[in-house]
Amino acid sequence: MELEELRQVTRSFVLSHQTLCITGVSFDKRCLVGYTELTLHPLVKNFNVIKLNARQLTIYAVTINDERNVEFSYDDPNIQILSDDDPRRDLTSFLKRQQRFFEYVDPDEGNGELTIFIPLSLQQQEQNSSTTNDDNNNNNTTDIVYKVTIDFSLEHPENGIHFFVPDDDAKLSRLSRHLFTTGHDARLWFPCVDSYCEPSTWAIEVTVEESLTVIASGELVECTTNNELKTYRFYLSTPAPAPFIGLAIGSFESVVDSNTQEITNYCLPGLLTLLTNTTSFVHEPLEYYEELLNASCQYPNYKQVFVTEPHAECIPFASMAIFNVNLLYPSTVIEATWHSRTQMAFALANQFFGCFITMRSWRDWWLLKGLALYLTSLYTRRAFGNNEYRYNLNQDMLDVIRYEREENPIRLDFAPIKSESDITNVNNRRGTMMSSQYLEVAAKKAHLVVRMIDDFIGREIMMQILNKLMCLATTACLKDAPLSSRSRLHISSKSFSRVVSTLTTKDIQALLTQWVYESGCPRLIGSFTFSRKRNVVELELKQDTTIKGSKKFLGSLVIRVQELEGSFSHTILLEDSVTKYELTCHSKVRRNKKKKIPLISGDEVDMDLNQMDPECPILWIRIDPDLKVIRELQFEQADYNWQCELRYERDILSQFEALEALKRYPSQNTRETLGTVLDSSNCFYRVRIECAYVLTHIANSMANTWTGTLATLSFFRRVFMSTNSTLSSTNVTTSSTNNLSLTVPSANIVRINDFSNSQMYMIQKTIPQAIALQRNKDRVCPPEVINFLFELIHYNENSKNRFSDAFYRSSLIDSLSNTLTNIGLTSTTTNVDLLLNHTLDTNTKRIFDEILLQLNYDKIIPSYGFCVTCSCLRVLHKLNIISGIPIDINVFYEYASYGMFDRVRLIACEILVEQIEIRMNQDVFEYIFNLITNDPDYNLRHKIIQHLCHHPPFRQNQTCSLNNPITVHRLWSLIKNFAYDNQIRNDLVELYQIMFGLSRPNCLPSLNETNEILIKDELDDVSDTIVDIDPERLSYFRLARYADDTKAAASKLASTSK
Amino acid sequence: MDNTNTDNPYDVLFERSLAVIIREYGFDNIELSAYHQFLDISNTILRRLLLNVKNFMEIQSRTEPCPADLARSLQMMNVKLSSLQQTYNHPIKHRLRSPDRQTETHPMKLFRVTSTTNNTSRKHRPIYIPDFLPEFPDPHTFISSETYADLRKDYPRVRHLLADQRRALQRSLVKFKLQTNEKLSVINTHGTNINDYYLIKYTISPLPYLSALLPQDQMESESTETIEDETVANISHRTKSLSATDDGEM
């Protein structure tokens, strides 16, 4: 096993231990100074060059085994990637070049930016020792050890390490200065082997001012103070690859988990109460994972650090994780709980699969990501319930399908492209070159695929396999374990499927081929008829392979038929694109309709069967009820079947399917069914909320014949508003009643808030939004609804509530925005006065006034995360676009400026991006580009570009005033400038593709052909761009590179370990 | 103690410091004779103390007193050293409130003309009053009538009042801030000067997350500590209540 794996990696040495020592940190100058020492074991005979990864660093000196000032060269082709301005401006050649540059420094290909030439004197020593040891073949390669020490400094890093230094000199601001690692690009902050499959033990030593705290991967072994300087020494005995080494320095406040001493949480000054509240549960997932995997976490401790402006919400490292400070929440806020806990559980899952057991290469990214998400979802299922779990699963699947249909195909195996013709889109490339949006959806797909594997082999065996992997990895962490055993710390798709096939008799190769090595997901169209004569269901399933991103699926599929006599599952085999099945029916048509009907859940219910076709005993049919396949489903059955399914089926996915289908059947019956489900308190809250939306949808499509108030509205009045005391006694069943309100006489006033039942809270919060979408015959929102919403805002009373109503208030504002329509708005006057005081609809004016009040009030007394401000800004934007109120763009500039809370900034920036999309505003475009270039918050830059990808000002070949050479140059130079931030560069490249396509943009004049050939010649040979290395030596190293030696060494090593 | 001898700086200082001590104990005023008595007593005590110290010093054949002498003399005068320590450690914090500051709060009385005492009845005078005498004054001045203020406190009314107050508070707060702070026009006016729509200009903060993550909007309700206690107990309950309607098996 090890032999084969060594062949894949052509590095000429093994790294056993690395010491990272940071001797100085300066926040004012934003720099780090330090040295690192790598302990290397050569694998080849004539070991004369060491290649390491290092970017944006200044290397001062290299020492090998006390041999000082060793010759080295430092060459970063990614800096030069576009430095010579390529006039072609086409992505195809750019991508090709970028991939070659990546390969050129890829540590797994034995390459790197930093080339160290081992002095001849040392090489001779080595040869001597190897000749003396020639008889003893087993030891000759492992005996020689090189200790490579590199002195380096890092100044004003663009990426890798983020310095947060507030501008002013206030005490709290000075205390809040901190720095942290931003991601897994280790080469950006210290010289290393930046590969996921080179685990080593670590010693980290950091010297800082006395007031600062250092948090790094590993166990804190010593902390000494000397002359107002403090030195922290960490030791990580569990081997970890360099990308998972994390560091955070700042005046953090800390709290040790009260349940598990091994977990410590850190946050910025002033947030300690939030930290205690947010992290109070962290021991739960840890215990759960350990129990599930039957293996303990291999790190001696676990640290969670909450920092500002990290590049992602959650970045896991070995034995620690860095989170966004926004994940912290006070105990009064309900909404934040789910998301924060999921993120923290995910980071913890990475301590098992992700950081501890790592991927071998980017091609196996999906497996580790999928496993971590799989563990996380198992925990969240336990913590938040099965319904929530299934709901999220379904959402993920819908996201994946939508992305494959509308955007790009997702191939989870990130194999490098072979030829230029393969470049069909920017995401069809190496893992390090994917856009963040693609990675996000791919992660969801990865999770679904891992879940499929789990389903295929069974939960118990899956856990056995994970346990086996953990056990194998654990043995590699033992003190006297041989270096070769460290290959157990990383897994690949191949090794995983091999473990599966040895432990079970099942082969997952076909499954991997369908979902991992190829992209696409099937679209199934189904319908059924019942043949009374033969008492069978004739089911027809078609696969639509004509649409984008579809793929034929062959395999088994579960069909569940609910009949009068119970629920029956059938497994069918999909073999062709059109398949017909005959499923035997177990029930006879009943004359006696009183009998109870058994459901899959074991319940027996009474159903009203009068609507039913008396000739057919089928109540409803479900295809693939447990989401075993990633599929898009379109199933036809009568509206009665859907209504029945919604009403009586207890599985929420089935209810969602039925709700989706019922949108197509606006009728009185549907209305009644929806009303019943909305009212039933034993239904999952998300179903009830969705029900409210569908009800509005139905009401709108039946607007001409609709009579009476919307069931949602009367439901809300009945449950959340004070009514006659005779009525209110009925409310006890639906909970959330308040003692005060029981004694209240008539008048519809919303009760004072009591959010102690979170399900009812979510319903109370979301239903007004659904109601607000109602439209009457004239396609405008009925005044009754608008008044209702204003009353809710007016009478909102939270003083007796234990929880914050911030999100409730922001939701009410969202509801107001839902009422806005552009119907009846005929005026195109530019006279502001006339518009505001005369032409504008009174309700719109009222909304506008309310928004301004709330926006101002939120500034004086902020809500949690400024969520009210965010909602208000969105409404302002809508008022501008739909109602034509000329909102000054400076308002959004103000909220987008640095110094605002980042969520508010993000909303403002998104609005600005959408303004560009609608108005083609050159100034705004400039402003956004400036933000992308200069903003100190990198996460915001990422998010803006992602939003631009969703809402580009124009797509390829569209005519637009912005589609001009200036934009091309601007975007191109941006791509050029982000040399160190790969992710931003990838996102920009995706934006470039969306706007201009892969080849040369149309708006540019065509190139002179001779010129083109010249460029090609110049760029085709990578080595031409490398100036520092002696070309002769270079070609020698590249050609003779380990061709024979590696194999020989590997086989020796393999024989030793066996 | 002779009061005319105020030229003596020692006396002046002593009198003042004693006055300060007395004031410390909460007496804003004191009668002069009582104060003089205080002065005499204190003087005597101090003299006695010093005499004792001097004696001890001489017994020990020293020329300068040392702390031990002082301690012994105090002991001789029946003063416990620990009580001194206590006085030193616990300075007087409570002050007696001077009685003249206390004000009685009188309950508000509502006077109202009852419907029975209307104009006609006022003009009707008893027969024993001669005609030439002037008429009775307005009943407000001499009748303490029963009050029937509209004090119905039904739920909608209270809610209505509460909501109105809250909204008015919001509005006036915003108005005040708009007048005192820099503001930003919401409407793109295209040069016209008709504009009533403003936003408060934001003051850039170096640590924006602090105000966002530590919201103030919950402050008015009960003390936060009790909330926290309750909530810790409720967190698990809350997550459980979310999955309460779970069923179905995966």
Automatic annotation (TrEMBL), chain A:
Cellular localization per UniProt: Nucleus
Annotated ranges, domain Transcription initiation factor TFIID subunit 2 TPR repeats: 639-1009
One of the record's GO molecular function terms: zinc ion binding
Segments traversing the membrane: none
GO terms, biological process: transcription initiation at RNA polymerase II promoter
Keyword vocabulary terms for this entry: Nucleus, Transcription, Transcription regulation
Domain of life: Eukaryota
Record bears the keyword Nucleus: yes
SUPFAM superfamilies linked to this entry: Leukotriene A4 hydrolase N-terminal domain, Metalloproteases ('zincins'), catalytic domain
Domain spans labelled Transcription initiation factor TFIID subunit 2 Ig-like: 519-637
Family, as annotated: Belongs to the TAF2 family.
Name the record gives this protein: Transcription initiation factor TFIID subunit 2
TrEMBL record, chain B:
Keyword match Nucleus: yes
Domain of life, source organism: Eukaryota
UniProt region (Disordered), positions on chain: 220-250
GO cellular component: transcription factor TFIID complex
Swiss-Prot/TrEMBL GO biological process terms: transcription initiation at RNA polymerase II promoter
GO molecular function per UniProt: protein heterodimerization activity
Span of domain Bromodomain associated: 13-80
Residue ranges with Acidic residues bias: 220-231
Domain Transcription factor TFIID subunit 8 C-terminal: 128-176
Pfam family, one: Bromo_TP
Protein name (Swiss-Prot/TrEMBL): Transcription initiation factor TFIID subunit 8
The organism's taxonomic lineage, starting at the top: Eukaryota, Metazoa, Spiralia, Gnathifera, Rotifera
